[in-house]
């Protein structure tokens, strides 16, 4: 199957402005968009840059804007998209080159919510006990692969890049609702600001963008509720 | 000007092994840096699915001695038993430690860590399968990687992300640091250190069908070889029975642990004929060979080169709850619903048993007398302790990376106390600069992609599950040609910023070196053991070959030496399942 792949390219060392490049690519319908990008890289234009590693939707490297939606290039099949594929870097991050964006700010926000179990009592000899129900409480948010698809699809983030963003809130949720964790108050304090959860306007782009099927808006709503109850 | 950094310890690689070691070293010094070509959480440990083995005995009786026996037998008796003993004992503490750090394991009704069955893990020295694999659905590796990274954040470990290490600074048997290429701006950086640990993972990318990520190109292993370190047991490369047909994406053994069955074109559960006790949970080397045999004898599905993994009898509840990610892969990439249809699978190149030789303290050794290289450590898939011998059991790599990541880190911490910075070699980054320059300026006509494709196809054909002298010799000739062509490789991207073209060329260089060691070691070993199966020598030969290979490359020529296997509790027996 022959498809036209249109890629937004930019090399700050060379180009003044981003520009569109088009490539005609031979692929199988069951190929991934990632395969199409690699075809371009390996056979048509070796200067193209993008990130990828696992190629099956687990490492979170290759979130990008594909036909107008944030998706993992390795998790979309060409046949879903038809004969024209448009690929752009994630919005709202500085572009390093082509589809490679600067993720430092994104990870700084992740670190800001203290993404580690906070529990200072000495541990037991074996495991902390946790019932299957308690474990299920935060299962959804443990799936996050930090791909940034949610945060960069969020109009609130586009409007203000300092907004902590859905990904960081999802990861705060993962700990706040873990029965073993004692750090909810510290994390909620970080989130209880104008640039924290309250900037979320419940637009739902994030849910649609998440390649792991996490109910991001629900996680945010639960964090908001926890804040309301904790401040009572 | 090259930037020079100074850290007491540098850890190369931010997968499970590197991060676990970093946490150990960070207890004694803040002057530690983790250098990784990927962002830590993109590392391949994150894709591990099924579980981590430890004899917790949470669901039924279990003992670390049983785990040890299974590991030794699974290794076809090539594993060093002193190392296996340490691993199986320490596994238990390592799993509890992860839980205390927050790892969200699945739970039993009493709130303990849940465990499942896995290939080759048995109760009472081989009687029947046992529940030993601790799991978090089928994303155990994802949770391990995240938990370790989270602890590194907590302890404020310094990271250099997207720094590709290209050279090891080693002189007079003393390690002095590494040289790395910063991908963001194309500059070389020298890391001057008292001690270095390599935790760079595997190299499945030398085969066409593989479960391994694009990044698994054996960088650290090849760099060590180039710096005069021998490589151990490189002829043993594991093929996992159930890769998604053509794509190689892994369907975890957990699918069979939960009751999945392999079937041929007649719908027959063919493992009944080969392994009457463990059936579909026999070790991987055995099942992969049986699958190839079924296919060769015309019993592949539609006569083609794949078989079926049948989960349809397990029901929606088990499939979606216990194997959610695997289910998602099958639906996404094959458009098949595993609840209703069997999954087309074929063996996929999965795990390198061989690698950089180390002792049980993680110290890299340079000869058959176990002489350590001062200040140089290795852990994880790039290392060979050896706990997996000729064939690794499922769940044992995650154990390996944690236990030996920790022990190597501990030994490094100890070493740092007494060690000084050995001076940097003159022109420390000279060789690395030359290599990059040569690739950037070459105007040959060969393409990296094409050479790599040929390498992967030919290795799959001639040096995978079944091997013969003829095939291996032909492969060696092919490799000579490929290496010659590699010298004329031309890359298109001449720029500095995020030059993937240069990176892929470097990676191909590593793969070519490692493929060569694999084939040379495999040609010499005239027996069949574990994952190394010689059709011309189909029997295991303990009298001649119960020993580890150490392959050196000196001035371009290979020299093979051998090292005895450590046997403590379990004498070699015939392997039946
Ligand atoms: C699909 C899949 C499923 C698996 N499931 C299981 C399982 O259920 N149980 C089990 O026990 N095992 C499993 N394994 C095996 C196990 O996951 C791996 O062997 C293990 O995670 C390897 O860990 P590591 O830390 O050694 O390397 P990796 O996690 O691969 O990390 C390597 C690190 O090295 C870095 N690196 C590499 N080269 C360079 C360089 N040149 N410069 C700088 N940095 C570099 C990378 O960036 C990365 O951070 C599975 C493997 C696969 C492929
Ligand atoms: S919540 Fe989903 S979209 Fe957002 S970073 Fe995590 S995996 Fe990606
Ligand atoms: S390459 Fe890993 S998520 Fe796409």
Keywords, separated by commas or semicolons:
heterodimer; A: 232 residues; alpha+beta; Ubiquitin-like (UB roll); Fumarate Reductase Iron-sulfur Protein, Chain B, domain 2; 2 domains; five-stranded mixed β-sheet; 7 strands; elongated; B: 577 residues; alpha/beta; Flavocytochrome C3, Chain A, domain 1; Methane Monooxygenase Hydroxylase, Chain G, domain 1; eight-stranded mixed β-sheet; four-stranded antiparallel β-sheet; globular; binds flavin-adenine dinucleotide; binds iron/sulfur cluster; binds FE2/S2 (inorganic) cluster
Question: Could you please describe the fold and organization of this structure?
Answer:
The complex is a heterodimer of chains A (232) and B (577). Chain A is α+β, with helices and mostly antiparallel strands. Chain A contains nine helices and seven strands; from the N terminus they run ββαβββββαααααααα. Chain A has helices at 33-44, 104-112, 132-137, 139-142, 155-159, 165-176, 184-191, 205-209, 216-230; strands spanning 2-9, 19-26, 63-66, 69-72, 84-88, 95-97, 100-101. In chain A, the strands form two sheets. In chain A, strands 2-1-5-3-4 form a five-stranded mixed β-sheet, covered by helices on one side. Chain A has a two-stranded antiparallel ribbon with strand order 6-7. Chain A is elongated, with a radius of gyration of 20 Å. The termini of chain A are far apart. Chain B is an alpha/beta fold and 577 residues long. Among the domains of chain B are: 243-349, Succinate dehydrogenase/fumarate reductase flavoprotein, catalytic domain (Flavocytochrome C3, Chain A, domain 1); 430-547, Up-down Bundle (Methane Monooxygenase Hydroxylase, Chain G, domain 1). Helix content of chain B is 35%, strand content 21%. In chain B, β7 and β8 form a beta hairpin. Chain B is globular and about 65 Å long. The interface between A and B is large, with 61 and 59 residues. Bound molecules: flavin-adenine dinucleotide, iron/sulfur cluster (SF4) and FE2/S2 (inorganic) cluster. FE2/S2 (inorganic) cluster (FES) binds next to loops of chain A.
């Amino acid at each position: 199957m022959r498809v036209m792949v249109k890629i937004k390219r930019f090399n700050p060392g060379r180009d003044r402005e981003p520009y569109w490049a088009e490539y005609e690519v031979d692929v199988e319908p069951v190929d991934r968009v990632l395969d199409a990008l690699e075809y371009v890289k390996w056979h048509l234009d070796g200067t193209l840059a993008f990130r990828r590693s696992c190629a099956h939707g687990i490492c979170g490297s290759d979130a990008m804007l594909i036909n107008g939606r944030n998706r993992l290039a390795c998790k979309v099949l060409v046949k879903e998209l038809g004969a024209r594929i448009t690929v752009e870097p994630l919005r709202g991050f500085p572009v390093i080159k082509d589809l490679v964006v600067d993720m430092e700010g994104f990870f700084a926000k992740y670190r800001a919510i203290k993404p580690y179990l906070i529990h200072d009592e000495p541990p037991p000899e074996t495991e902390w006990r946790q019932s299957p129900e308690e474990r299920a409480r935060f299962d959804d948010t443990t799936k996050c692969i930090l791909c940034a698809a949610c945060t960069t699809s969020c109009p609130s983030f586009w409007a203000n890049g300092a907004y902590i963003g859905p990904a960081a809130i999802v990861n705060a949720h993962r700990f706040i609702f873990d029965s073993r964790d004692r750090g909810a108050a510290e994390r909620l304090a970080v989130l209880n600001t104008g640039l924290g959860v309250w900037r979320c306007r419940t637009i739902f782009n994030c849910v649609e963008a998440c390649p792991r099927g996490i109910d991001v808006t629900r996680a945010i709503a639960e964090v908001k509720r926890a804040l309301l109850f904790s401040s009572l | 000007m090259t930037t020079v950094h100074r850290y007491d310890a540098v850890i190369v690689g931010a997968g499970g092994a590197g991060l676990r070691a970093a946490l150990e070293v960070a207890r004694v010094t803040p002057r530690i840096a983790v250098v990784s070509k990927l962002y830590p959480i993109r590392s391949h440990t994150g894709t591990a699915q099924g579980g981590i083995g430890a004899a917790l005995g949470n669901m039924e009786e279990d003992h670390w001695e049983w785990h040890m026996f299974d590991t030794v037998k699974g290794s076809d008796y090539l594993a060093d038993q002193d190392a296996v003993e340490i691993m199986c004992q320490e596994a238990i503490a390592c799993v509890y430690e992860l839980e205390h750090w927050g790892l969200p394991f699945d739970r039993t009704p009493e709130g303990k860590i849940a465990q499942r069955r896995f290939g080759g893990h048995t109760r009472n020295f081989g009687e029947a399968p046992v529940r030993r694999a601790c799991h978090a659905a089928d994303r155990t590796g994802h949770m391990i990687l995240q938990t370790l990274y989270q602890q590194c954040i907590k302890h404020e470990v310094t990271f250099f992300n997207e720094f590709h290490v290209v050279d090891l600074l080693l002189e007079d048997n003393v390690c002095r640091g590494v040289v790395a290429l910063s991908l963001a701006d194309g500059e070389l950086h020298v890391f001057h250190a008292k001690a270095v640990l390599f935790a760079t993972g595997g190299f499945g990318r030398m085969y066409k069908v593989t479960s391994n990520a694009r990044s698994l190109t054996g960088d650290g292993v090849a760099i060590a070889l180039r710096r005069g370190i021998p490589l151990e047991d490189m002829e043993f490369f594991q093929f996992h029975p159930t890769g998604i047909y053509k794509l190689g994406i892994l369907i975890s053994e957990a699918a069979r642990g939960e009751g999945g069955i392999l079937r041929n074109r007649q719908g027959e559960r063919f493992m009944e004929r080969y392994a009457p006790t463990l059936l579909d949970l026999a070790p991987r080397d055995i099942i992969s060979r049986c699958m190839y045999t079924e296919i060769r004898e015309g019993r592949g599905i539609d006569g083609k080169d794949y078989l079926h993994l049948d989960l349809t009898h397990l029901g929606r509840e088990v499939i979606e709850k216990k194997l959610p990610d695997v289910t998602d892969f099958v639906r996404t990439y094959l458009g098949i619903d595993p609840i209703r249809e069997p999954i087309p699978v074929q063996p996929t190149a999965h795990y390198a048993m061989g690698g950089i030789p180390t002792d049980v303290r993680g110290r890299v050794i340079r000869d058959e007398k176990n002489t350590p290289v001062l200040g140089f450590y290795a852990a994880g898939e790039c290392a060979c302790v050896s706990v997996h011998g000729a064939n690794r059991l499922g769940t044992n790599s995650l154990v390996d990376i944690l236990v030996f990541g920790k022990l190597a880190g501990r030994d490094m911490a100890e070493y740092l106390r007494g060690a000084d910075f050995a001076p940097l070699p003159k022109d420390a980054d000279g060789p690395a600069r030359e290599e990059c320059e040569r690739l950037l300026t070459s105007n040959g006509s060969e393409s990296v992609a094409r050479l790599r494709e040929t390498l992967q196809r030919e290795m799959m054909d001639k040096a995978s599950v079944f091997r013969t002298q003829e095939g291996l010799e032909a492969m060696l000739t092919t490799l000579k040609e490929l290496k010659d062509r590699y010298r004329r490789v031309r890359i298109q991207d001449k720029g500095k910023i995020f030059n993937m073209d240069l990176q892929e060329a470097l990676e191909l260089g590593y793969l070519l070196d490692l493929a060569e060691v694999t084939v040379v070691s495999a040609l010499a070993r005239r027996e069949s053991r574990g994952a190394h199966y010689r059709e011309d020598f189909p029997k295991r030969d303990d009298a001649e070959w119960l020993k580890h290979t150490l392959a050196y490359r000196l001035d371009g020529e290979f020299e093979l030496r051998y090292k005895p296997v450590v046997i403590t509790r379990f004498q070699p027996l015939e392997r039946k399942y």
